Amino acid sequence: MWILGISAYYHDSAAALIQDGNIVSAAQEERFNRVKHYAGFPRQSIRFCLLEAGITLADVDSIVFYEKPLLRFERLLETYLAFAPRGWRSFLRAMPLWLKEKLFQKRLLLSELKRIAPDSELKSRLRFCEHHLSHAAAVFYSSPFDRSLILVMDGVGEWATTSVMLGDGRTIQPLKEIHFPHSLGLLYSAFTSYCGFRVNDGEYKLMGLAPYGEPRYVDLIKQQLIEIADDGSFRLDMHYFDYATGLQMTNSHFHQLFGREPRQANSEITQLDMDLAASIQQVCEEVVLKLAHALREEYQIDQLCLAGGVALNCVVNGKLLASSPSKPLWIQPAAGDAGGAIGCALAVYHLHHQQPRTVPDGDAMQGGYLGPAYSDAEILALLQTTPNIIFEPLNEQQLLQRASQALADGKVIGWFQGRMEFGPRALGARSILADARQPGMQSLINQKIKFRESFRPFAPAVLREEVSSYFALHVDSPYMLLVADLQSEQRISLSEDERSLCGFERLSVSRSTIPAVTHVDNSARIQTVNPTDNPLFYQLIKQFKQISGCGLVLNTSFNVKDEPIVCTPQDALACLAATELDEAFIGHYRVTKR
Amino acid sequence: MDFLCELWRFMRVRKKLWLLPIFIVFLLLGGLIIAVQGSALAPVLYTVF
Fold first, then answer.
1. CB pairs < 8 Å spanning A and B
2. What is the torsional sign of CA A20, A426, A363, A343?
3. HEC profile for A346-386?
4. Which residues from chain B sit within 8 angstroms of residue A99, using beta carbons?
5. Which tens digits make up the pLDDT trace of B18-37?
6. Rounded to a whole number, what is the distance in Å from the CA of A353 to chain B's nearest CA?
7. DSSP for residue A456
8. CATH topology agreement for domains A2-142+335-364 and A376-593
């Protein structure tokens, strides 16, 4: 049985195809059309999924959309009514779009699908799944658990902003919900926006900024903005927020509370921004930890699955794991809306078609490598017609030897191998790699290759068996979703002067044996690499270790700031040409600029 | 017609029949927007929004 899942029309459109409950392929539309966070219909992603499986839309048993538009419209109307007459301006702006398009999403979907398969009967096969159920299904059905609590937290779906469900075998049962406008995701986004970053894009920048600040505003936030109960449930004071019916996230009361208007995107990041980032991060951690502990206590189930955008906050995830290290935790790598495409397809397979579930050994995400791959023949054809490059073919042994030696020589390389990752992280298929021991490497890559803010940290990809030598982490983290502290023996003791530095001054200090992947608070966002999910990447790090003695490399996504991660070899060559990357290994070819 | 049937089912299942008058007003307005597209009335209507 084939099922196609579609996530679209909000942000990060994606498609996923499953066969008999197994994920065959999944991809985000932004990778194909090169528009970051693309929200339109994922036409190219659907075409890729079908092509990869060698089927047409006529062969698909169910086509599933990841949320229910009428339910979302109901929420919109009731919210405007509840807040009336406030919000009339936003109401007048939103309604024409809803009346012309969004309310008739079923028709829109059918007409878009018709363009892919003009002769297919589609209507009877099109289904809709609730937003949080899509998230819950994406995480539970791909988890290694037969029975588990599921905690979904994001901005908002239809009504729910936080959902607790129980996954048991093939079933998922809703237990509790917190409804809009009380949303931890939107609270975090409000601070993201106030600190000058884009909502739905800059949240991870705010998370990266947090260690530069002091959590001075935690008490103020808890006194004025959010009331947190002992069980982690919460309620926001909407007096300070504009997002329910307005055109911005925060209002003048919020701005007065922190004594400033929102920071403009191109203006300097101040100590206030850093302190607010640290404060909201701490509040977020408190809510998630309280919720998780209370739920495990109440239902007497240790297994916990996390999904929704908040689950991409890997600092929170790391704290949650550290707070109860013996309790099993599984986080969906595509925890955001893109992952809803996988979830809605799995939900319809197990819940609507009532098909049995086989609990996967490990997990069902296949390392996240669910996107397109390109053959050496395709790559060669492109290389032969691309001007101003030099390329040489390599066998696998040579590929590993040349790439690991380049890393050991301090070069920054592009690594384009196999199927593209699904989800926001590059995990060794579309990655930029470097030696994490080089002190200037972080600022070099930020400024000359990624062209992004200098404060943003990079992640290490570490051999699974080496992880505990470097970090206070003893479990798998193949999807870069956990942050842990460096082991003390990897740290370098700082002088009095170095310790007294604050803000971005702390960036200049080399604080560990692997400074390029050590954040200013001595933490790192870890990817463990095992020989099963990505044997080539594992062998590369292994070979690098043989040369250098270091069992990890710096791993960041193969793209430049504000662009999606590369998808095709053409994208990789364009990135090579536009940056100061030293060389790229694309399939079995080493490519340099002429 | 399909849409109206779906809307009716939705309101019944959700026990939100009180939304019906609001939906009717919206659908009439939506219909008006589509009907006057390209006509001289369109700028007037869009000004309202």
1. 38
2. negative
3. HHHHHHHCCCCCCCCCCCCCHHHECCCCCCHHHHHHHHHCC
4. 26-27, 29-30, 33
5. 988 888 887 787 677 666 66
6. 21
7. -
8. no
Give CA A166 to chain center in angstroms: 23
In the numeric block, which tokens belong to residue A405?
């030696």
Query: What kind and span of H or E run contains A288?
Result: helix A271-299
* Domain range A179-331, CATH class: alpha beta
pTM of the prediction? 0.94
- The CATH class, in words, for A376-593 is alpha beta
Residue B7 structure tokens: 């809307």
pLDDT per position as a tens digit, A112-154: 999 999 988 899 999 999 999 999 999 999 999 999 999 999 9
In contact, A304 and A166? CB cutoff 8 Å: no
SS3 assignment, position A214: coil
Assigned superfamily of A2-142+335-364: ATPase, nucleotide binding domain (3.30.420.40)
Q: Which residues sit opposite A462 in a β-bridge?
A: A528, A552
Nearest chain B Cα distance for residue A573, angstroms: 45
Burial of A351 (0-12, 13-18, 19+ CB in 10 A): middle
ipTM tops the 0.95 cut: no
d(CA A390, CA A589): 10
Length of chain A in residues, anyone? 594
Residue with tokens 């191998």: A417
Tell me which residue of A133, A279, A118, A289 sits closest to A211, measured CA to CA: A279
Check if B42 contacts A (Cβ < 8 Å).
no
Question: What are the domain boundaries of chain A?
Answer: 2-142+335-364, 179-331, 376-593
DSSP A420: P
Is the Cβ pair A74, B19 closer than 8 Å? Answer: yes
- Within the 63-122 window of chain A, which residues sit less than 8 Å (CB to CB) from chain B? 70-71, 74, 77, 81, 92-93, 95-96, 98-100, 103-104, 106-107
Residues, chain B: 49
